[in-house]
Amino acid sequence: MPAPERSLLFRVFLIDLLIGLWTTLKYTFKPNVTVQYPKERAAVHPNFRGILRVDDDKCIACFLCQKACPDNCIYLEGEKGLSKGSKYAAFFYIDHARCMFCGLCEEVCPVDAIYHSIEFAGATYSRADLVHDLEVLHKGHAIVHYER
Ligand code: SF4
Ligand code: SF4
Questions:
Q1: What CATH number was assigned to the domain covering residues 52-139?
Q2: DSSP letters of 4-44?
Q3: How distant, in Å, are the alpha carbons of 32, 111, 147 from that of 138?
Q4: Could you state, in order of their start, the residue ranges of all structural domains in the chain?
Q5: pLDDT by residue (tens digit) across 55-95?
Q6: Is 100 in the pocket of ligand 1 (CB under 6 A)?
Q7: How far apart are CA 77 and CA 96, in angstroms?
Q8: Ligand 2: which residue has its CA nearest to atom 8?
Q9: CA distance 79 to 86
């Protein structure tokens, strides 16, 4: 598509160039809005859905999160607890490689045992490392802080 014709006035006085320079000048003295990731990390919103965590002290192994998950990324096994009628999660795995961070598991949990952290730096070199067991889900996975 051909560029629209500019009037003679615009062409003679380089008006487009001056408009561009004026825009650059306006932003030159404003504070930066970008951060130099990974050296700096911007604060995320408290409602951000990051890497999942599980508080196994709270979990009652009701399987609601597993049933609610549309991607089948939660696997758990429940055992009977010491007190009558109580249960706890003996095994709990979440495959973050499949997870789409929809938040449904967090929403259905009756005791707030599963929740999204605000951590987002979960990249690994292996898909297997994205399957987190109960220990990792409880403590939070090790964050690699890149220096370059
Ligand atoms: S956030 Fe969604 S996809 Fe991820 S584990 Fe929970 S329910 Fe499944
Ligand atoms: S919904 Fe909550 S209490 Fe039930 S199994 Fe999942 S994490 Fe545990």
A1: 3.30.70.3270
A2: PPPPHHHHHTTHHHHHHHHHHHHHHTSPP----TTTS-PPP
A3: 37, 15, 27
A4: 52-139
A5: 999 999 999 999 999 999 999 999 998 888 899 999 999 99
A6: yes
A7: 18
A8: 59
A9: 9
